[in-house]
Design brief:
Order of helices and strands: HEEEEEEH
Helix content: under 10%
Largest sheet: 6 strands, antiparallel
Strand order of the largest sheet: 4-3-2-1-6-5
Radius of gyration: 18 Å
Number of helices: 2
Distance between the termini: 39 Å
Number of strands: 6
């Protein structure tokens, strides 16, 4: 098996088995200063504990006039700090260079994707217990 590439121990398997289908859900507001009409936009940040991936969804109010594309950031690993494009020859990022939502609390401001600032104002019951 080892010659064929199998038989290796999967280090993240235990984390996946313990945290499968467990999601931290944070409700937040982003003050959109980049548009001329200065808006407060509601979002939901989902942090999947099984694989430490993040998804950001925008919560549209009724009749807001926006196109209905609620995914602001597709589910994936979100790097800390400013975004940079890595080429195929770049070194892979280490685990501590990605966002970890276990450090977030209700009432804190989080900067994601370089310059988007989200104010976390609430969380669901599971997230509060976790």
């Amino acid at each position: 098996e080892v010659m064929l590439g199998g038989g290796h121990i999967n280090a993240d398997m235990q984390q996946f088995l313990e945290n499968d289908r467990k999601v931290l859900r944070f409700f937040c507001i982003m003050d959109d200063l980049q548009t001329p009409q200065f808006e407060r936009r509601p979002f939901v940040i989902l942090f999947f504990l099984a694989d430490e991936q993040v998804e950001i969804r925008e919560m549209y109010p009724l009749n807001c006039g926006r196109d209905n594309f609620p995914i602001f950031f597709r589910k994936g690993k979100m790097p800390l700090g400013n975004c940079r494009v890595d080429g195929p020859q770049a070194q892979p990022r280490k685990k501590h260079e990605y966002v970890d939502a276990r450090e977030w609390n209700v009432g804190t401001e989080v900067t994601l994707l370089g310059n988007y600032r989200f104010l976390i104002y609430d969380a669901d019951e599971f997230t509060r217990q976790y």
